[in-house]
Write a structure and sequence with these properties.
By secondary structure, the protein is mainly alpha-helical. The protein is 66% helix and 2% strand.
């Protein structure tokens, strides 16, 4: 029987620091964009342009306007904290997977030359992760808890998420939303494999 060493406990407030700090970075970037000459939006994802690939990293920090940032802030913080409950490492791993898959899908599927910015891809990714996490291995009590959280999240944001893919207004990237959600699902599946490796082996 092989038992992995116990993980070092992490203070609950420290877990929530990551989404809070990431959101604060978005607000700082938006403030800098407002007071400095020019626009940072050019660093977003420019589809089918190889020079726009670094935007996969930068786009979630950039927003077209204050209204755009404000609209993303609350769902980002709520869903991001639900992901961060599982720990700082898990939050950043999920964020990285969502950003890469969501950004690459947006770069590939959007019309050539289209510029995409905003954290909504991460928001949809966190949503997809929380919903798919129901199928994670573990104790029944944990799976029931995940299911309850998923039901609440779907009730709060499910309609918005569907509208964000199938009923978007002009100028809104349904591609970023869709592939962000796919990235969240992929992150949940990756988390399942990690959980299984960390399980007790006999």
């Amino acid at each position: 029987m092989t038992v992995p060493p116990p993980a070092r406990s992490e203070h609950p407030l420290r877990r929530f620091a990551s989404p809070v700090l990431l959101l604060a970075a978005m607000w700082l970037v938006q403030f800098a964009d407002a007071v400095l000459p020019g626009s940072f939006s050019g660093f977003g994802i420019r589809s089918w342009d190889p020079s726009g690939l670094p935007g996969i990293v930068f786009a979630p920090l950039l927003h077209a306007s204050w209204a755009h940032l404000i609209a993303n802030s609350v769902p980002f913080l709520v869903l991001g904290c639900l992901v961060a409950v599982e720990g700082t490492r898990r939050f950043w791993a999920v964020t990285g997977i969502v950003a890469v898959i969501g950004g690459a899908g947006t770069w590939l599927v959007n019309a050539p030359g289209t510029l995409t910015v905003g954290a909504s891809g991460l928001v949809f990714g966190y949503f997809g992760y929380v919903v798919m996490r129901v199928f994670a291995p573990g104790r029944v009590s944990h799976r029931i808890l995940y299911a309850v959280i998923a039901v609440v999240v779907v009730g709060l944001y499910g309609g918005t998420m569907l509208a964000g893919v199938f009923g978007v207004a002009d100028g809104v990237s349904w591609q970023g939303h869709l592939f962000g959600a796919i990235g969240g699902g992929a992150a949940a599946l990756a988390g399942r494999r990690l959980d299984r490796r960390g399980a007790v082996r006999r």
